[in-house]
Amino acid sequence: MIRLINFMTSLFVISSSILFAQDKVPVKKWSLVDCIDYALSNNIDVQLGLLDIQTSKIDLKQAKNERLPELYGSFNNSQNYGRYLDPFNNTFATDATTNSNLGVDLGATLFTGNRINNKIKADKLNLQVSLLENEKLKNDISILVSTQYLEILYQKELVELVKKQLELSQTQLKKTQILIEAGKRPKGDLYKIRTQISNDKVDLIDQENALVTSFVNLSQTLNLEYDPQFDIQEVEHMTLDEQYTFKKVEDIYKTSLNTMPEIKAQQYRIKVSKALEKIQEGAILPTLSMGGNLSTGYSSSRQLPEGQYHYMDQLMDNYNSSVYLSLSIPIFKKFQNRTNIQKAKIDKMQSELTLVKLKNNLFKEVQNAHSDALAAFASYNAAKQAVTSSNESYVFVKEKYNAGSSDIYELNIASLDRLEAYSNLLRSKYTFIFRTKILDFYTGKRISLN
């Protein structure tokens, strides 16, 4: 019994040591690059896009294989009863017989209106479209992850700001108690400050919940199950570039035309539609093909004068071969070819109009991003001035309150105004950072916070 107790005690100590050691292991903090790379590797939509690329590669490979000949082998064996014509000796037979036929057919297309080459060209272009569509998807995910990452950074700073506000209110409570004991302030101020502290605590809970929601949103984008220990890296030296150079909208737009994958993809789609139009035009041209055939057979009814005609001997003797050259000329097909050509031309025009529409939308996006960045910068400057003014106002009201010439209500208002000013500064700071990153993105730069 004593040994068992000693063993259990030792096991408890060891287990506690292991758990303690595990507690000391630092939890990995994800950088923005980590989050983006993980999302691109595990996002379901990206994986579906990769499958589309594989399908396009298979289609291209098969289009090239259409240049190869077709080879077929055939074999059939039949048991015949009653009267029938034996194809090997051209006589009628009435006995039950066994027939076998073997053959090999080879066929190749020599000319088909250049449709095979145009199909290969179209599939090559479709592969580029699939690659660019996947790149567009990756860009969208990168922007989404960056937005959610910045939202977490903002919420973290906001939580710290609200904590400082709570600490400030708690400090003011202690000072007010001293002033009340000295007879300089009415006792009612104590209740008002306690109410303010309660409000600050509620605000802190709300902001902490908002921070958790931000982490949940990022986890979902990464296709991860939410873990309370999941955290991101604090970005060192991430400051707002107050000297940011705003390029002209037209210059950003011209650059984005060469960097945005959706524009390139649509340009390739136009080329695809042209290749498909040529395929339909090729359908009205003749098709030239050639081929050959090897065949032989066996019949149990066929006999030699000297006796049985063996299976292998018949196969060798019945050997037959043929070669053919075929020319197929389309004359009338219910106007189907003409209809297909007309539809292909319409598809090409639709692709061209879609490109114009995409370019117009891209210009609007760049224009809006530029305007949003300018507005965010103006908001940031206004928020800085508001912080300066609210700080000065708070210090002034606080001194008046301590001197007994102001009430607790005025002090609370000044404190809340100061908190709101700092909150607006944080929001405008991260908004401006994000807006400038979007502008840089349109010029082909990868989103980074460093």
Report what the structure shows:
The protein has helices at residues 2-24, 32-42, 44-65, 115-181, 188-221, 249-259, 261-282, 311-317, 336-403, 408-442, and strands at 29-30, 70-80, 84-86, 91-93, 97-111, 231-232, 287-299, 303-304, 307-308, 320-328. Strand 8 and strand 9 form a beta hairpin. The chain has a single domain (27-68, 112-285, 330-442), classed as Outer membrane efflux proteins (OEP), CATH 1.20.1600.10. Helix 6 (249-259) packs across helix 9 and helix 7 runs antiparallel to helix 9 (336-403). The protein is α+β, with helices and mostly antiparallel strands and 450 residues long.
Quick one: how many beta strands?
10
Beta fraction = 5-15%
Q: What is the distance, rounded to the nearest whole angstrom, between the alpha carbons of the first and last residues?
A: 63 Å
Average residue-wise pLDDT: 88
Number of DSSP helical runs:
10
Radius of gyration: 41 Å
What is the CATH architecture annotation?
Answer: Up-down Bundle
**The CATH topology is what?**
Outer membrane efflux proteins (OEP)
Count of the separate structural domains: 1
Main pleated-sheet profile: 4 strands, antiparallel
Unreliable stretches: 1-25
> What is the structural class?
alpha+beta
CATH superfamily: Outer membrane efflux proteins (OEP)
The succession of helices and strands, N to C, reads: HEHHEEEEHHEHHEEEHEHH
Share of residues in helices: 55-70%
